[in-house]
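Design a sequence for this backbone.
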């Protein structure tokens, strides 16, 4: 899992800032396909409980993972 600060214009640009950018957070999480729905549900539930008023949760598929040290494929079950 990786959490990082990102910037973007978002739905409501901040016209009082010189560059109009807003600070946002991006979380990258790799998981087995069987657990994705459970993870999405937990994140959405937490966001609602915390009063998050905006945001998007994107779910993307990874076709292949390759270990750079030896070029071997990484099995999803090892995640």
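Sequence:
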């Amino acid at each position: 899992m990786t959490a990082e600060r990102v910037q973007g214009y978002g739905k409501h640009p901040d016209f009082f800032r010189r560059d109009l950018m807003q600070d946002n957070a991006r979380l990258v999480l790799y998981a087995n396909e069987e657990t994705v729905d459970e993870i999405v549900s937990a994140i959405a539930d937490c966001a609602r409980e915390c009063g998050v008023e905006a945001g998007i949760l994107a779910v993307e598929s990874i076709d292949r993972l390759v270990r750079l040290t030896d070029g071997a494929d990484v099995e999803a079950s090892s995640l």
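The beta strands are 2-8, 22-28.
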